[in-house]
Amino acid sequence: MSTLSTDTPVPAAVAGMSAFAAGKPQQIVTFKVEGRSFGVDVGAVREIKGWQPTTPLPNAAAHVLGVINLRGAIIAVYDLRQRLGLGPSPVSRSSVVIVLDLGERYGGLLVDAVSDIVDILPSDLRPAPDIAGDGDDVLQALLVKGEEVVALLDLHAIVRESTPAFTA
Amino acid sequence: MDALAEIRGIYFDECDEFMGQLEGCLAAVADGRATSEDINAAFRAVHSVKGGAGAFGLTELVEFAHLFEACLDALRSGRVSVEEAPIDTLLQAGDVLSEVITAARDGGSRPPPPDLVHALEAMAGGNPVKKPKPAEFDLLDDLGPAEPAPAAAAESADEGPARHKLEVRITPDRDVFRRAFDPRMVFDALASFGSMEVVCETTKVPAFDELDPLDCHLVWVLTIDTDASDQAIVETLDSFLADHEFRIGRPGETSMGDAAPAVAEAAPLIPLDAHAEGEATASPAAAPAALPPAGAGGGSGAAPPGAPASGQPPARRTGGGTIRVDLDRIDRLMNLVGEIVITQSMLTERAGVLPKREAAAFVDALFSLARQTRELQDNVMAVRAQPVKVVFQRLPRLVRELERTLGKKAHLVLAGEDTEVDKTIVEELADPLIHMIRNAMDHGLETPEERLEAGKHADGTIRVSAEHRGSRILICVQDDGRGINRERLMQKARSRGLIPADAPDPTPEEADNLIFHPGLSTAAAVTDVSGRGVGMDVVRRNVEALGGRITVESSPGRGCKFTLGLPLTLAVLDGMIVRAGTERFVFPLSNIVETMQLDAKTVEQLPGGRHILQLRGEIAPLLKLRELLGIRAIGNEPNVVIVETESVPRLAIAVDEIVGQQQVVVKNLESSFRRVEGVSAATILGDGLVALILDVDALPGLSQSQRRLPSATELNSGAA
Amino acid sequence: MRILAIDDTRTLRELLCRTLRAAQYDVVEAENGEEGLNRFSEHRPDVVITDLNMPVLDGIEFTRAVRQRSDGGEVPIIILTTESGAEIKAEGRKAGATAWMVKPFDPQRLLDMLSRLRK
């Protein structure tokens, strides 16, 4: 479920991005998955690290790749491509894991490559289209910069296991 | 925070400790198993509460604690025998004291109930307890280096008596020097009241050959020109001298009697000690009973060295002093030990790549390191260990409160309070325990009428015990109430679709364990104590989050027993590493019975595809780890780990490879992901990769969720 | 001047020690009589202030033990307690207590007393 609907005005309704509401410029980290551009608030990014093998978790959702050791702490890694309904990510040399601060814990997001850090203004934002499609619930808003459209992600929606394969 | 507020905070923290001690001691008194040390400890706890309260001018608290203390003193001194002590009054006093403390902490007031005060006064022994003097000082204010300022004199100058001459006669006990007494201390103190003359009388000093220089035979007569009251002077003298060692009066008055030894015995003003009398002075040998020979026992009393004269032997001492340490520091220490364990396993892995000659010495060193790490860890753990008493001692009060709320009577029996377990576990124990006691009181125990009707004692019994079992601690909460209403529970479960209509009847144990299901409760009425359905499922969740397990045994009409199994520590465990496919998993060593190669001849397939393993005449369900955890791999699983679980005594789990044994550091998975069924935690192995620690007790359930485990009857038919 | 302050109640010990330290005394703390004896050996205090009711080793026992030491005869021992009964005071004196002060203590009075002992 998206936290946005089309008829709500932008940018005030962009949930979780209070700085936008305040009308301040903001920085986002953009990255690519399957050629498409995505972005997350730079404030949520803790570090960006290369791919390392994950330990799979039994009975977890398909986009939960498993857990890794981040300097003694254990964090779960999520496959964004899988989450978007585009199938499992092929891991390559440029694959990176973006370590995100999810509030109560950290989580890793496997993406094809990190592109850039860009400055945005609230006026650059558009509401996410309300089309029911695979993975659309993770979109928070769209950022239109010239030709490029960057999908801003709802981090909590990404890590959510909407249909966990197993419930106790 | 200013200094006083800080100390006030310390005081109230300390009060919690004292109240905890008191609870435990009173519970012991109530159970009739109190030792004299319990009573002493109770006395000291209340005494300490009072002492601190006095310092902060908490009058209400001081007064109540004082009264309570007097009662405990009566008990301590034997004026009131423990058997005859009004237990309820003492327990109530404990509760009220706790409330008064809370009120004082919050700056409020909580006057103790008058009938309780009367009951306590009665117990304290007829003579009404004197109210302690409330005192409040400007603590810590303007505390420069002390001036021997005549503070008392200055104070009393306003309204004290007019200037007059006062005579003070000091006739100290002969052994006064042995208490490091220096008459100049007294002179100096008195000099602050006004101008003073001192005359020393030496008439009682014996002949030189009979003189012990450590004995005091001197008498001093002081004449003070002062406007201070007699009371102020007496108070000053009182600090240093016993009543019989000084007298005050008008000039000339205090020597009465001394000048005429003949009337000494009759004169009430005469010092009472035999050796201070003229006769005794003239011939010291005449009073041998009262006066030990000089030098014997150092003069510090007639008791021989080592013999306690107070009648109370000093309590046994177990260590060489204690210090308080921040828990954070111990946690950091524990984390470091965890890191060392990981580093150690890294080194162990590297040992394999060394040339043989070097490897031997390296492996030796690794063994030492392993041993030392283990010892270090045990010691750090011991620092963190706490007896479950810390939690248990809160229970008597809880039960009493519930007795009042529910109108039921219960006898609480505690056992194994000294069982030690890691502090984090102790802390986590409190909530489940409280929940279980509530449950037992509310749902388990019948009303007194119902009990009598059922031929039971009107008072119920709740037994709470703790014991070590391997690397786990078992906590049992047992009541002698009505037991779980199975039919009702089943009925509800069916009506809510929790049990499929076509499912076979669950065993009684399975039925009873439905009590842990969210939303099921057998209570006929919703009470404000346990609520409906909220409780046991929450308890189970909390316990499982700690890597623990909870089970219930119930016997209708006779009671119910909850057993809580928890690991002794959450930090480190001994594990056996196995491989399934490409993944490694850790079995807690404490669950493992044995490991073996899988012999195909011992495996039988049951109709329906399930497998069992013949194990020296016994039958164990055989599960495949790959299947359980959804791991794809090809080839056989040639090894088998036999584990003991709470529901299945012997469970065989086939794995690809048994990698080895090692200690692993437990990393919580809930906080980084969520609870994963079948997995209790994660750990980091020597190569830096994460491995999952299996929750062995949950594995049978994991298999059931995919396909049912063979039932007992199937197993038997399979074996036959 | 070095003072050994013994009290099992942390609050009161803290109060006592702060009072003494504020008055520029060198203070050594102990939680009970036995620890007090150990500190006594280690630090050779000039004066001892001790509580009476303590676990392990109470104030009277402590005083008696100090007086039995070869180096413990001349050190003034002040008993600071809530108890003021004649009997217990006599017992304290017999054990060798130099002075007796009733809690809650008046800091000024205590400091006055100490300043006298200092001479």
List the helices and strands and how they pair.
The complex is a heterotrimer of chains A (168), B (720) and C (119).
Chain A lengths: L17 H4 L4 E8 L2 E6 L3 E6 L13 E7 L2 E7 H4 L12 E6 L4 E6 L1 E8 L4 E3 L11 E7 L2 E6 L1 H5 L9
Parallel strand pairs in A: 2-11, 5-7
Antiparallel strand pairs in A: 1-2, 1-8, 3-6, 4-5, 6-7, 9-10, 10-11
Chain B lengths: L2 H28 L5 H20 L3 H19 L9 H19 L8 H12 L25 H6 L7 E7 L12 H9 L2 E8 L17 E8 L3 H11 L5 E4 L28 H5 L44 H25 L4 H29 E3 L1 H4 L2 H12 L3 E6 L4 E3 H22 L3 H6 L6 E10 L2 E8 L6 H10 L12 H5 L23 H10 L3 E7 L3 E9 L4 E9 L2 E6 L3 E6 L5 E3 L5 E5 L2 E7 H5 L9 E5 L7 E5 L1 E9 L13 E6 L5 E5 L4 H8 L5 H8 L1
Parallel strand pairs in B: 6-8, 13-22, 17-19
Antiparallel strand pairs in B: 1-3, 1-4, 2-3, 5-7, 8-9, 9-11, 10-11, 12-13, 12-20, 14-18, 15-16, 16-17, 18-19, 21-22
Helix pairs in contact in B: 1-2, 1-4, 2-3, 3-4, 3-5, 10-11, 13-14, 14-18
Chain C lengths: L1 E5 L3 H13 L3 E5 L2 H11 L3 E4 L8 H10 L8 E5 L4 H10 L3 E4 L4 H11 L2
Parallel strand pairs in C: 1-2, 1-3, 3-4, 4-5
Summarize the structure.
The complex is a heterotrimer of chains A (168), B (720) and C (119). Chain B is an alpha+beta fold and 720 residues long. Helices cover 38% and strands 19% of the residues of chain B.
What does this structure look like?
The complex is a heterotrimer of chains A (168), B (720) and C (119). Chain A is mainly beta and 168 residues long. Chain A has a single domain (18-159), classed as Beta Barrel (OB fold (Dihydrolipoamide Acetyltransferase, E2P)), CATH 2.40.50. In chain A, 8% of the residues lie in helices and 42% in strands. In chain A, the strands form two sheets. Chain A has a six-stranded mixed beta sheet. In chain A, strands 3-6-7-5-4 form a five-stranded mixed beta sheet. Residues 1-22 and 163-168 of chain A have low confidence and may be disordered. Chain B contains 21 helices and 22 strands. In chain B, the strands form five sheets. In chain B, strands 14-18-19-17-16-15 form a six-stranded mixed beta sheet. In chain B, 38% of the residues lie in helices and 19% in strands. By secondary structure, chain B is an alpha+beta fold. In chain B, a hairpin with a 2-residue loop joins strand 16 (611-615) and strand 17 (618-624). Chain B folds into five domains: 3-125, Four Helix Bundle (Hemerythrin (Met), subunit A) (Up-down Bundle); 152-284, ACT domain (Alpha-Beta Plaits); 327-386; 388-567, Heat Shock Protein 90 (2-Layer Sandwich); 572-719, SH3 Domains (SH3 type barrels), CATH 2.30.30. Chain C has one domain: Rossmann fold. In chain C, helix 3 packs parallel to helix 4. The longest helix of chain C has 13 residues, at 10-22. Chains in contact: A-B, B-C. The interface between B and C is large, with 61 and 61 residues.
